[in-house]
Amino acid sequence: MNPAPVDLRHSELTVGELARRSGVAASTVRFYEREGLIHSRRTSGNQRRYARETLRRIAFVRAAQRIGIRLADIRDALSLLPRGRTPTQEDWALVSGRWHDELTLRIEVLLKLRDKLIDCIGCGCLSLDGCALVNPCDVLGGSGPGARGLGGLLRETPYEPPAAQDAS
What we know:
Blueprint lengths: L11 E2 L1 H8 L3 H9 L6 E2 L5 E4 L2 H13 L4 H8 L10 H9 L2 H24 L45
Helix pairs in contact: 1-2
């Protein structure tokens, strides 16, 4: 079954059209809006309408999420883009350029992790907590939770729990 065609004569998209065109669920579109990543206007019937350039914003958000950029950082970057017009290539370069150094660091960390995993798996013991090479006598356990073997280069998880709702 083919999705319903989008009428290109209209300059705005409904939630359903935006979801189909961007490849995300309608609930994700609404979530991105709640998080301030995209914006809509409301019709007189209180229905959401999105400008066509919202497709590019969603593509940007999804690409940034795939490489582990936190939603707060994505929101900050998107706040640099103009509202009311389609962003130019220069606009996108400004936004994405902010992450160059961070991505370079992540690549370096991933390469180190890959190389250490190959070495460790190669010994065949599969007992990382008791490994005499990686963590003899669990000495790293005393320095706190989480990964310690990469010199503290790993950032905290990009997951951000939803803000607690005030019950008052």
